[in-house]
Design a protein that fits this description.
The structure holds 2 protein chains of 2 kinds. By secondary structure, chain A is mainly alpha-helical. Chain A folds into 2 domains: about 160 residues, no CATH class; about 50 residues, no CATH class. In chain A, about 80% of the residues lie in helices and about 0% in strands. Chain A contains 11 helices and no strands. In chain A, α1 runs antiparallel to α7. Chain B is elongated. The chains are: A mainly alpha, B mainly alpha. The interface between A and B is large, with 93 and 71 residues.
Chain lengths: ~230, ~100
């Protein structure tokens, strides 16, 4: 690593740091709830490294606890993580020259939080980003990765101490409520949420968690309709 | 739950391939506008689809008036006012335990 590369790497670390304050509690909550959902400590920790995607991990443990079939779990992970394809598309010009190992490593580290920090820098300094942006992204991504693994471990440790008499299972639903409220920013997202919620309740009797799939489709369709053909203004 | 490991590995692979998609392979493809627009609605739709039955349905029956509804409403209000996940969970759980204690 040359001097300029290490400067970019450290800059990425530093710029990611403020975000870690918000990420660490989520990692801990995930650790606690994964144990409560019935995962073994080893599996709960491994998921943070293997999947490494906050909301997908929360949904995964919730659905696994409800004994949803594997294909519903995987379809949910696919749909929820599809947004990463957009991040991938938006970052690809900056990483085009890199070798396959770099591309694989940076893709593994691609999360909402690393993307948000990196793209706001790349857009401001595109020339520099094409030359050394991968070091910046590596710094930001590794900072987040380390914080996520460590906070998961703390959560698993804490989860093992909490008596099971506390009805903590509902706190996963409360976590989803806290995550969904900030994304309800306009009429169309509220319509999407309402349509999905009503469909999920009406279809909750369907087998194989099909109600969840139907509700997600209904919500997305309702959001698009509410937004109208022109898109967001 | 021993079957969790292969499902988890598959979930990890799916996530990785989505992230690799454009960086690794499809440099030039631009997603259709409708796909970009639709993705914005995935979080509100999926999260709400999980939460609503969890709060309103018990043992397969529509049972809206229960302690979880009060807890969910307070948690939503706290999330809206503070944007804090921790605070929303803590107040929501406190309301749940308090209402459960009074209910009986």
């Amino acid at each position: 690593m040359g001097r300029e590369a290490s400067i970019e790497f450290l800059r990425g670390l530093r710029d990611e740091a403020p975000i870690l304050v918000g990420v660490a509690p989520l990692g801990m909550i995930y650790g606690v709830l994964a144990l409560r959902a019935g995962l073994e400590a080893g599996a709960a920790q491994a998921m943070s490294a293997i999947v490494f995607a906050g909301s997908a991990q929360f949904l995964f443990v919730q659905l696994a606890a409800q004994a949803a079939p594997a294909w519903v779990l995987l379809l949910t992970v696919l749909v929820v993580n599809l947004r990463h394809a957009l991040y991938s598309a938006s970052l690809s010009p900056y990483f085009r020259r890199l070798g396959p190992r770099w591309k694989a490593l940076l893709s593994y580290l691609l999360t909402d939080e690393a993307y948000a920090v990196a793209i706001s820098r790349f857009v401001v300094a595109p020339q520099e980003a094409r030359e050394r942006g991968h070091w910046y992204f590596l710094g930001a991504g590794l900072a987040l990765w380390t914080a996520w693994q460590a906070s998961t471990a703390v959560g698993i440790f804490l989860g093992a101490q909490i008596p099971s008499a506390w009805s903590l299972d509902f706190s996963l639903a409360l976590t989803f409520i806290a995550l969904v409220v900030p994304v309800l920013r306009d009429r169309a997202t509220v319509v999407a949420a309402a349509a999905a919620g009503v469909t999920a309740v009406v279809a909750s009797g369907l087998p194989f968690k099909l109600g969840l799939v139907a509700a997600a489709v209904a919500g997305i369709a309702a959001g698009l309709l509410a937004e109208g053909p022109g898109g967001r203004r | 739950m021993s079957r969790i490991w292969p499902v988890m590995a598959a979930a990890g692979l799916i996530t990785f391939l989505i992230r690799l998609s454009f960086i690794g392979v499809l440099h030039r493809w631009r997603p259709p506008r409708i796909v970009e627009r639709a993705l914005r609605f995935v979080p509100p739709a999926v999260l709400t689809a999980i939460v609503f039955p969890e709060v309103l349905v018990r043992d397969g029956a529509f049972t809206p008036w229960n302690p979880r509804l009060a807890a969910a409403a307070v948690a939503a209000l706290v999330a809206w006012k503070t944007r804090s996940v921790i605070l929303s969970i803590v107040t929501g759980m406190a309301v749940l335990l308090a209402v459960q204690a009074l209910w009986h």
